[in-house]
């Protein structure tokens, strides 16, 4: 099958640091190539892939300080894909609603994975207007604000099986936090949990420009006062296994309807339990009492830290292998592409089915 994967240009594929969407596009693309498909990746020119790379800008836009209008390169990319659409059996976009209008006016089957939050009322009329575009959700919970949209399937994220693995012989001695410093990720809760447990907290996180004021005004003072918290900054995939190996648990104290939460399965791949607040996708990803604990508040998280030590790290890793590999993710996509290309009905209510 000839497949086009169309990625955001904000980060490279895979990203050099933090970047969930681009990382998933990379994993999916590589697995599709491994399954024998002819894949073209439309992405930034500094992307690295075994597929055919169609570079749409010299480097990831976040790393290009001279680029002041990030929309222009994206719309040029969509025009390029539109002109080449006849070369492919299926077009798979990772740009939310941006391709809907243009690509509804051409013949090649296309679909879009929605990677972000949908609880924004200003979005809903647009999806109603383009009700025939097949949509992939990354969790069933993500669908909740738009239950009547044209959902084709929920496909949970996956990681290459050998990307992150447990490291033997390391004694867990701290709590870990990986993600972004922003209000919805609630690193302030993580700091409080660590303080109440009397454990060190290591924070491996990115600070976007839009969140810089939040960091300076809300989080930096907490770090300055806390003897437990250490801010490390962004880490790469190659650093995550070592970072997670020393963690008693990964803290995921979110305060928003998380569409998926890739870091949860990264921790599971390393055999590390996750202590997560039960918003969004969390109940679909974490098996309470087996791969971690789902809690309602800081007190519940504090209580869960000691309990996490009694979970089997081998079992956490095993459940990752059974549920969240990139090969499973790619096979789910191929089944959906095949249905779409052959014009069969593809509306499937939810992942559980």
Descriptors:
Glyco_trans_1, 2 domains, Glycosyltransferase family 4 protein, 7-stranded parallel sheet, Rossmann fold, 6-stranded parallel sheet, 12 helices, Glyco_trans_4-like_N, disordered C terminus, alpha/beta, 35% helix, globular, 353 residues
How is the topology of this model organized?
Blueprint (H helix, E strand, L loop, with lengths): L1 E5 L13 H15 L3 E6 L8 E4 L15 H14 L5 E4 L6 H4 L6 E5 L9 H6 L5 E3 L13 E4 L19 E7 L6 H11 L3 E6 L5 H14 L3 E3 L5 H9 L1 E6 L9 H8 L4 E4 L4 H4 L6 E4 L2 H11 L4 H11 L2 H16 L12
Parallel strand pairs: 1-2, 1-4, 2-3, 4-5, 5-6, 6-7, 8-9, 8-11, 9-10, 11-12, 12-13
Helix pairs in contact: 1-12, 5-10
Summary, kept brief:
With 353 residues, the protein is of the alpha/beta class. Helices cover 35% and strands 17% of the residues. The protein folds into 2 domains: 2-158 and 325-341, Rossmann fold; 174-323, Rossmann fold, CATH 3.40.50.2000.
Describe the overall structure.
This protein has 353 residues and is α/β, with parallel strands linked by helices. The protein folds into two domains: 2-158 and 325-341, Glycogen Phosphorylase B (Rossmann fold); 174-323, Rossmann fold (3-Layer(aba) Sandwich), CATH 3.40.50.2000. The protein has twelve helices and 13 strands. The protein has helices at residues 20-34, 71-84, 100-103, 124-129, 187-197, 212-225, 237-245, 262-269, 282-285, 298-308, 313-323, 326-341, and strands spanning 2-6, 38-43, 52-55, 90-93, 110-114, 135-137, 151-154, 174-180, 201-206, 229-231, 247-252, 274-277, 292-295. The chain has a seven-stranded parallel beta sheet with strand order 3-2-1-4-5-6-7, with helices on both faces. Helix 1 crosses helix 12 (326-341) and helix 5 (187-197) packs across helix 10. The protein is globular and about 60 Å long. The model is unreliable at 347-353 (pLDDT under 50).
């Amino acid at each position: 099958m000839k497949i086009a994967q169309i990625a955001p240009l904000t980060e490279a594929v895979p990203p050099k640091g933090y970047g969930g969407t681009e990382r998933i596009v990379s994993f999916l693309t590589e697995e599709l190539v491994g399954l024998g498909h002819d894949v073209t990746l439309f992405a930034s020119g500094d992307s690295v892939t075994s597929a055919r790379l169609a570079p749409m800008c010299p480097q990831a836009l976040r790393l290009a300080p001279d680029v002041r209008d990030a929309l222009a390169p994206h719309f040029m990319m969509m025009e390029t894909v539109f002109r080449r659409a006849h070369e492919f059996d299926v077009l798979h976009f990772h740009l939310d609603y941006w391709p809907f209008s243009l690509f509804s006016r051409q013949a090649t089957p296309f679909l879009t994975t929605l990677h972000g939050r949908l609880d924004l009322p200003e979005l809903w009329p647009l999806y109603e207007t383009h009700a025939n575009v097949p949509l992939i959700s990354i969790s069933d919970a993500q669908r909740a604000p738009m239950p009547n949209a044209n959902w084709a399937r929920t496909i949970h994220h996956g990681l290459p099986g050998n990307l992150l693995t447990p490291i033997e012989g390391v004694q867990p001695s701290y709590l870990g936090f990986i993600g972004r410093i922003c209000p919805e990720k609630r690193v302030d809760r993580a700091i409080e949990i660590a303080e109440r447990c009397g454990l060190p907290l290591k924070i491996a996180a990115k600070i976007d420009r839009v969140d810089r004021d939040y960091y300076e005004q809300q989080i930096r003072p907490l770090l300055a006062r806390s003897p437990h918290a250490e801010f490390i900054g962004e880490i790469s995939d190659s650093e995550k296994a070592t970072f997670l190996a020393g963690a008693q648990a990964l803290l995921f104290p979110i305060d928003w309807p998380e569409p998926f939460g890739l870091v949860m399965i990264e921790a599971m791949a390393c055999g590390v339990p996750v202590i997560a607040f039960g918003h969004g996708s969390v109940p679909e990803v974490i098996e309470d009492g087996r791969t971690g604990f789902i809690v309602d508040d800081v007190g519940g998280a504090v209580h869960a830290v000691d309990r996490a030590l009694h979970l089997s790290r081998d079992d956490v890793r095993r459940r990752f292998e059974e549920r969240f590999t990139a090969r499973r993710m790619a096979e789910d996509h191929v089944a959906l592409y095949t249905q779409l290309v052959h014009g069969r009905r593809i509306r499937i209510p939810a992942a559980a089915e």
